[in-house]
Amino acid sequence: MSRDAIVKALRPFTSCDVSDALLKLNHPHGGFLSNLTMWSPKRQEGSTKVVGPAYTVKYVRKNHGTDPTLKGHYIDSIPAGSVVFISSPPKIVNAVYGGLMSNRAKYSSAVGTIVDGRVRDLQEHRDLDYPVFARDVGTASPQELLRVSEINVPVRLQSEDQEATIFPGDYLIGDLNGVVCLPKGLAERAIALMASQVEADEKIAKDVQNGRTFQEASKQHRAKVKEVEDL
Q1: Binding site members for Mg(2+)
Q2: Stated pTM of the model
């Protein structure tokens, strides 16, 4: 499948649906990236969803002299349809993403930005109706402490809860439930599992609403999903 076909196939599904499929493929944590939540266009409210390939941006501390220095500005080379994923070093109070960046990202037809760190200018992102996910908010810009080192390189999630790496071109799915990273090498296999598992869950929900036990309904409908997987 082409990149566009994969994005189109993923759009009807939630981040939880993608995680369920990845768990069946034995991918750690179902691809979930912890502590990244929606801040814009609303705070954990509404039907906003971002789906697209990752365009990664790596910030480093200014005193890391061995890291390369990026020429130009990362915000000017975002491919249309991408999800911008910004990696900040841990234990940084300064924000690494602001309103001017969303103005340019939206102009470039990015579908959203996910910040493994802090963002600022929150109202500006919201006025743009541009999706932003992040760990937290702040007021200070990054210039005093940080610089962009590289773009489109693997970046590690800055988390004490898990180990995860986001590779350029991996598919990022963000909604009210959180953010999931679907490795590009698993995308087609995961998509093949999703429709049948969602259909099964819908049937289970309908059955239990009509008084059937969860155990009975789950045994019947999820068994059919297993049959599909075995084909």
Answers
A1: 121
A2: 0.91
